[in-house]
């Protein structure tokens, strides 16, 4: 009996990676003085910059962020050789606006991609166009309909672009994404390359190959299966159900594709998950992470075998996390709690100190200015974010202390147009340890102290009225005159097929 | 209190470093001596250890007993048993924090009968799982049944076909059965065992728990991930690859290979390996003569596997610590048998009962177990069951042949108080039975002997089936079992031979055939892949 191909690949992947990581320690020590931020003008950026976004990856489900299941051996080893941001936040609770922030350096308020029917306005500059202008060949491999070039324009400025069909429901890892990325890195041998890679594997349905499920999935006899439909059923708004039960309107009350949909009629009730169900669901989710981690190991080991790993700046992050009833819901889309906003952020590469953990709160909008800075390029149009280089060099910087970090573009904005007041629109604003969340449905302001209460279980709005008032006023000011309606030229008319694809993801309706 | 104890494993890096420096200094000055020198703990360290050891067990905490069996792990390939390669930093530390039995023996040279003994407290002739087609008879009580009857919750996290609930039924009485997939030939560490065990402990935290864990990683094929091979494997240009297939060919009697090649034996008798594709001892087989550099390479590959498994165990201990269960658990680490590297002419394991096969690690750590203690008295893996039953206050059924080890483990015991147990251990007879030679006898009679052995104190009598000479060894002066002293010590030889013969006569006569099972074809293939010949 010989080893399966997959396990052999895994083995070589992990092994090579670890070997590389071990051998690179000393090199990084000596290179420490030579930092990207110091002499931008004279210094060439890294010949390979790789931005990897793993959709729906909760930071606290990775070993390096303290998870109790062994989900991420490759990422843990990778991170040990780089810098970990312990407190990185996304700007939005779903794929489209969060990636728009990642790839423009702007919050949703500014990049305007707030709902299903908004494309990125042409006048908004993107990271890709700036990198192109700076001499990088740019390429994007994505497998989400939200990230298509034509429809929403998030990836419009990449020189090379490949859309791989949605695969979040598939069990097997998306090795095609990796292979394609590797191919382009090979082709661009003589030119610096900026590559954006998006994996959809961790997203629900929580499905992975049996060898990964076997690691984590413990004996279970319930009905939870990790499908997006179930997650949706467990998260129904009571008045949405009531609305569909009383007056069934196919336009509003169908989830799924035209051929295969869930009619939210009287036969459909909200389902509840008990502790066993939730445990099972998290085990399925974690198996998906482990599988993806393995795929990254394969990616890194190929880079290493071609001599490209050590010269590369690699940034790993996610667009948002995932809810497991932490605050009464599953999935992600509406809320701004930490289980959704907190994402992993790891940088590894030449000049990035190894073994460093940075506690300063940062945001996905910081990625664009940081990548430009490391590439030795000037940030011409101002970003909402900050260049993280000072933090990477171990220097505290006053601008990080004073700034606010936002969570906006709640999926409630999309629903609001069809069913006013049924779904909540969440918004959040954070300064330092304090985070205020506004829920449009209850009209409540919730204040949390993330330092003493990272799980956001204790609302302090009454205990700390002064802070609440100040942050609430700030948020009101930010959304005064706010209108999420896209301008006519940026409106995306979804074709039936496209709409189906989105519906299939469990977005209602 | 628990905190401070659990903390010790977390601060392991520093401790290892100290231990390593100590070892280097020691080997630089004095070279390698027979007797290992322990790195003395600092004053505060030993004070802390004493404090932990003397503390009464916190009553409110439920019991957590963990029995870890690392398949095919030779004791003398671990640092704490004196190995010269740095194979076991985590196990070494684990051993320092507990009680190490320097002279623990298995009872059989292969997985199935040895584990049946480990989980019943009986030698193979008593539990009767002595061949590949036997199951554990219903009337034989298992540790998991006895614990279950007393209200404990039990689980087995295993990855060997031998240890399935069905077929051989060695694990039949466990409440929960987690993960079986034979992975002896895979490079990766079996993280599923670790993860399943941690999850099970987490999910059943309120009751008294016993979990049996079995890792197959060290077993041949000797494969591990490159990062571990890089640590151990030096330059080598030969053809030895650490596969079970090679080890088997190297150990086969020439006449067996000839008879297979000349088709005197039916094809099925010459089949090894799983069905896709099966491997046959046919004309393509060429016997490899292993040279010194081949042997070295082989042991390096084996050691790399140990080092990888050692890392996985550390991960398990850390996982327990993060659940705050490490301090209150009682953990036993052992193996079912060792491995041969041609000490007596063959490789692998299955047939012989020399010390390279029988000498296994046995380490206890945790609640009510003394730290920094090493016990020289000869003990056996059948002693594990009565020890655990003692912790659970369950009376030990008289049919159990093992002896409670608690007098050695208790932090409050003194040299005087353990003396009588030591004497008992020196006087008792230990057996090794269920040699794979029994199976060879059925498949190809007269080619490979069935071994059995009996030991009292340092004398060990090895008996082999008809046609092969028996031998007596004094393990104290001849640990490598090179010099047969049966002519010099005829009285001892006779005592041991007679005792063994008497036992055999008594047990064979009461042995029934009702525990014979049909091995299903899938399982047979799977077992062939592990190098066992299964005659269909």
The CATH topology of the largest domain in chain A turns out to be Alkaline Phosphatase, subunit A
Number of domains of chain B: 2
Give the distance, in angstroms, between the N- and C-terminal Cα atoms of chain B.
57 Å
CA gyration radius of chain B, whole angstroms: 22 Å
Question: Architecture of the largest domain in chain B in CATH?
Answer: 3-Layer(aba) Sandwich
Number of domain units of chain A: 2
Using the alpha-carbon principal axes, give the shape of chain A.
Answer: globular
Strand content of chain B: 5-15%
**Oligomerization status of the protein chains:** heterodimer
| Share in helix of chain A | 25-40%
Number of DSSP helical runs of chain B: 19
Largest interface: A-B, 24 and 34 residues
Mean pLDDT of chain A: 87
Unreliable stretches of chain B (pLDDT < 50, length at least 5) are: 1-41
N- to C-terminal distance of chain A: 50 Å
Average pLDDT for all residues of chain B: 86
**Which topology of the largest domain in chain B does CATH recognise?**
Alkaline Phosphatase, subunit A
Secondary structure: helix percent of chain B: 25-40%
Look at the helices and sheets of chain A and give the structural class: alpha/beta
For the record, the CATH class of the largest domain in chain B is Alpha Beta
CATH architecture of the largest domain in chain A: 3-Layer(aba) Sandwich
């Amino acid at each position: 009996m010989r080893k399966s191909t997959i396990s052999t690949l895994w083995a070589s992947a992990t092994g090579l990676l670890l070997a590389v990581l071990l051998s690179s320690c000393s090199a990084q020590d000596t290179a420490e003085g030579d930092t990207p931020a110091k002499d931008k003008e004279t210094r060439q950026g890294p010949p390979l910059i790789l931005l990897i976004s793993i959709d729906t990856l909760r930071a606290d489900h990775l070993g390096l962020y303290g998870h109790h299941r062994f989900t991420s051996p490759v990422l843990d080893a990778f991170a040990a050789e780089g810098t970990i941001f312990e407190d990185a936040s996304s700007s939005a609770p779903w794929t489209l606006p969060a990636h728009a922030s990642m790839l423009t350096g702007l919050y949703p308020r500014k990049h305007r991609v707030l709902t299903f029917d908004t494309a990125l306005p042409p006048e908004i500059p993107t990271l890709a166009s700036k990198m192109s202008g700076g001499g990088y060949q740019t390429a994007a491999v994505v497998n989400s309909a939200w990230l298509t070039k034509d429809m929403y324009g998030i990836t419009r400025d990449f020189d090379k672009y490949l859309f791989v069909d949605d695969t979040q429901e598939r069990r097997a890892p998306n090795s095609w994404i990796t292979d394609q990325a590797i191919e382009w890195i090979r082709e661009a041998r003589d030119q610096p390359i900026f590559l954006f890679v998006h994996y959809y594997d961790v997203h629900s349905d929580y499905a992975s190959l049996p060898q990964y499920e076997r690691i984590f999935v413990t004996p279970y006899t319930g009905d939870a299966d990790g499908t997006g439909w179930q997650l949706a059923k467990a998260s129904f708004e009571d008045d949405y159900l009531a609305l569909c039960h009383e007056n069934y309107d196919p336009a509003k009350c169908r989830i799924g594709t035209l051929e295969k949909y869930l009619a939210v009629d009287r036969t459909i009730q909200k389902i509840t998950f008990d502790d066993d169900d939730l445990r099972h669901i998290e085990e399925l989710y974690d198996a998906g992470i482990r599988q993806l981690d393995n795929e990254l190991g394969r990616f890194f080991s190929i880079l290493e075998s071609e001599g490209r790993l050590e010269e590369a700046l690699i940034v790993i992050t996610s667009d948002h996390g995932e809810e497991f009833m932490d605050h009464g819901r599953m999935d992600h889309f509406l809320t701004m709690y930490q289980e959704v906003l907190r994402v992993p952020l790891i940088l590894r590469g030449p000049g990035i100190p190894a073994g460093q953990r940075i506690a300063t709160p940062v945001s996905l909008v910081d990625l664009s200015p940081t990548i430009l800075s490391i590439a030795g390029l000037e940030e011409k149009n101002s970003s909402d974010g900050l260049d993280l280089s000072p933090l990477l060099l171990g220097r505290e910087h006053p601008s990080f202390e004073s700034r606010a970090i936002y969570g906006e573009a709640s999926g409630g904005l999309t629903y609001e147009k069809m069913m006013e007041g049924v779904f909540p629109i969440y918004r959040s604003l954070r300064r330092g340890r304090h985070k205020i969340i506004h829920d449009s449905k209850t009209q409540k302001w919730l204040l949390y102290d993330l330092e003493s209460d990272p799980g956001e279980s204790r609302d302090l709005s009454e205990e700390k009225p002064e802070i609440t008032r100040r942050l609430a006023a700030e948020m009101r000011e930010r959304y005064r005159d706010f209108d999420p309606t896209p301008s006519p030229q940026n409106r995306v008319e979804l074709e039936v097929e496209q709409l189906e694809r989105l519906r299939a993801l469990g977005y209602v309706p | 209190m628990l905190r401070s104890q659990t903390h010790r494993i977390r601060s392991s890096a520093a401790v290892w470093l100290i231990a390593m420096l100590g070892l280097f200094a020691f080997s630089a000055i004095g070279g390698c001596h027979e007797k290992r020198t322990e790195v003395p703990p600092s004053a505060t360290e030993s004070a802390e250890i004493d404090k932990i050891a003397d503390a009464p067990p916190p009553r409110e905490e439920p019991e957590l007993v963990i029995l870890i069996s690392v398949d095919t792990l030779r004791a003398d390939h671990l640092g704490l048993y004196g190995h010269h390669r740095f194979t076991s930093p985590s196990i070494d530390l684990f051993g320092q924090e507990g009680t190490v039995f320097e002279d623990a023996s298995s009872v059989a040279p292969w997985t199935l009968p040895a584990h049946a003994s480990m989980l019943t407290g009986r030698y193979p002739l008593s539990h009767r799982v002595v061949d590949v087609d036997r199951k554990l008879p219903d009337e034989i009580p298992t540790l998991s049944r006895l614990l279950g009857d007393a209200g404990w919750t039990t689980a087995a996290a295993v990855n060997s076909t031998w240890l399935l609930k069905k077929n051989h039924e060695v694990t039949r009485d466990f409440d929960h059965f987690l993960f079986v997939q034979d992975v002896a030939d895979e490079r990766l560490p079996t993280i599923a065992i670790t993860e399943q065990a941690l999850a099970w402990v987490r999910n059943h935290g309120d009751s008294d728990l016993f979990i049996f864990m079995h890792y197959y990683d060290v077993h041949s094929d000797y494969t591990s991930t490159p990062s571990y091979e890089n640590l151990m494997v030096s330059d080598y240009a030969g053809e030895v690859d650490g596969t079970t297939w090679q080890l088997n060919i190297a150990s086969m009697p020439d006449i067996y290979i000839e008879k297979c090649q000349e088709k005197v034996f039916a094809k099925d008798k010459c089949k090894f390996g799983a069905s896709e594709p099966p491997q046959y001892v046919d004309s393509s087989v060429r016997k490899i003569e292993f040279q010194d550099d081949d042997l070295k390479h082989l042991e390096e590959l084996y050691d790399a596997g140990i080092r990888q498994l050692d890392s996985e165990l550390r991960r398990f201990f850390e996982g327990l610590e993060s659940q705050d269960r490490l301090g209150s658990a009682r953990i036993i680490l052992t193996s079912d048998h060792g491995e041969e590297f041609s000490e007596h002419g063959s490789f692998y394991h299955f047939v012989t009962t020399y010390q390279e096969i029988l000498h296994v690690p046995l380490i206890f750590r945790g609640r009510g177990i003394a730290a920094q203690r090493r016990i020289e008295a000869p003990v056996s893996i059948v002693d594990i069951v009565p020890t655990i039953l003692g912790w659970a206050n369950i009376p030990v059924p008289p049919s159990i042949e093992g002896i409670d080890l608690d007098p050695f483990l208790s932090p409050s015991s003194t040299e005087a108080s353990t003396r009588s147990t030591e004497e008992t251990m020196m006087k008792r007879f230990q057996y090794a039975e269920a040699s794979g030679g029994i199976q060879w006898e059925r498949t190809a009679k007269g080619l490979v002997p069935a071994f059995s052995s009996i030991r009292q104190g340092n004398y060990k009598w090895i008996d082999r089936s008809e046609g092969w000479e028996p031998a007596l060894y004094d393990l104290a002066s001849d640990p490598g079992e090179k010099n047969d002293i049966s002519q010099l010590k005829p009285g001892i030889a006779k005592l041991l031979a007679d005792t063994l013969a008497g036992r055999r006569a008594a047990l064979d006569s009461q042995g029934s055939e009702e525990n014979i099972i049909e091995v299903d074809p899938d399982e047979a293939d799977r077992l062939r892949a592990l190098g066992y010949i299964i005659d269909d």
